[in-house]
Specification:
- It is a single chain.
- By secondary structure, this protein is an all-alpha fold.
- About 85% of the residues lie in helices and about 0% in strands.
- It starts with 11 loop residues before the first helix and ends with a helix.
Length: about 100
Amino acid sequence: MTLPILQPGITGAAFDAGVPAVVEQLNQQMVAQRAAQLTQFGRIDDEIRRKLTQQRAEGAFYQADRAIANAKSQRLMGALSSKFSLISKIQQNIG
């Protein structure tokens, strides 16, 4: 949208008629720009929220995997401990 150019030297009724048109066009441009900005901000907000949700889900999956790995590790350590205890008892009985 182009603005009408108010030429220097225009006075009176011609000037008065041109100013409201310019002001109206500027207002329309500002409204259109603001609407475009809000749309863009909305898209950015949606993208950030989507990434945050994805990160939270990945964090939850990581914590679940870590908990499973810790449980397996504890079971393995318990099994090894009982085997070492058994070996120690056998050595005591032999020696």
